[in-house]
């Protein structure tokens, strides 16, 4: 079974089937335009990129829009195409906008000339073992990094799972060179948790994860020191593009396996994403409904500086301070934190209880509008965690 971007096909099919219905609509109805635009944005934020693009295309073709509205619609269509890996459509939409995001064109054009990213799988459920590199502080479990075995060429190695790396996967320069991940001649500056780094784009013609074969997977190749981590050496990371190809992933934590079912569930989407393909869940904490980033590259969940600034007086008066180190693209950063004992969070259908949680007092390039991060400790704390970044849902079961 091959899974690849379907933007062009779906858009063409729908418009071919319903051309007369679209043309018969009222052309200058501002309320209808707003309603359709809001529906398209909602689809996009929940990862339904093809559905979103179909609506925006209908608005462009059949409604009277201002220049600003047309530009905004095309930018959303470009966003949909870029995150989903449909780089040819991104270039086409940019051309329709007379060179929208012109500075990005050489980069995206190079990606558009490559074969599409895809995953081949057998017609049965696939089970993959995983291991956890556990982190411990003061004798207590502090989450860990989830690793899966991968075969690249004839060599078996380990990749970390980290949806927070988006929209590509990541490898160090030395790993790319030794494992045949080919640079394609373009790159960009990369913004990470603790700073920035240069990166070059590369492609892996083929790699295997259990019974899965992944072809043409795109990687950001970064300097070795940019992936430095005080806990462990990380050379290879499966990012959001891998998660989206995989679809439903059931983390069976009692047996430490990931099940990728052939028939994937149609659950209600309870995750959203932003322009940078970062993923968010709603969390209930002490009577507040808070937006948290889901980031499996964070070994332990935390509250960020935005939460600290909202409750600064009560936090500083109540909770002790400590120092904490955070590693990410850009190196290692140390900051002052406040420690809160026994926090309880309700999220994604489950109750998550921690021994303690850190409240960061300084900004770590936190996603706008977020109050904290759900890390891999959240994923590992339940008997079963079901994650699908193609259909944008996360549910937990005890």
Strand content: 35-45%
Distance between the termini: 32 Å
> What is the subunit organization of this protein?
single chain
Instruction: Give the count of helical stretches.
Output: 12
Give a written overview of the molecule.
This protein has 398 residues and is of the alpha+beta class. The chain is 29% helix and 38% strand. The strands form three sheets. Strands 1, 2, 4, 5, 6, 7, 8, 9, 10 and 11 form a ten-stranded mixed beta sheet that branches. Strand 15 and strand 16 form a beta hairpin. The chain is globular and about 60 Å long.
Summarize the structure.
The protein has helices at residues 7-17, 19-23, 30-45, 49-62, 67-84, 87-96, 105-112, 173-179, 240-246, 305-310, 312-318, 376-380, and strands spanning 2-3, 118-120, 126-129, 131-137, 140-152, 155-161, 169-172, 182-191, 196-209, 212-222, 236-238, 248-252, 257-260, 271-273, 279-285, 288-294, 302-303, 321-328, 331-341, 344-347, 350-353, 356-360, 372-374, 384-388, 393-397.
Q: Which key phrases capture this entry?
A:
alpha+beta, 12 helices, 398 residues, disordered N terminus, ten-stranded mixed sheet
Question: How are the SSEs placed, and which strands pair?
Answer:
Layout lengths: L1 E2 L3 H11 L1 H5 L6 H16 L3 H14 L4 H18 L2 H10 L8 H8 L5 E3 L5 E4 L1 E7 L2 E13 L2 E7 L7 E4 H7 L2 E10 L4 E14 L2 E11 L13 E3 L1 H7 L1 E5 L4 E4 L10 E3 L5 E7 L2 E7 L7 E2 L1 H6 L1 H7 L2 E8 L2 E11 L2 E4 L2 E4 L2 E5 L11 E3 L1 H5 L3 E5 L4 E5 L1
Parallel strand pairs: 6-11, 7-10, 16-23, 17-22
Antiparallel strand pairs: 1-2, 2-10, 3-13, 4-5, 5-6, 7-11, 8-9, 9-10, 12-13, 12-24, 14-15, 15-16, 15-20, 17-23, 18-19, 19-22, 20-21, 24-25
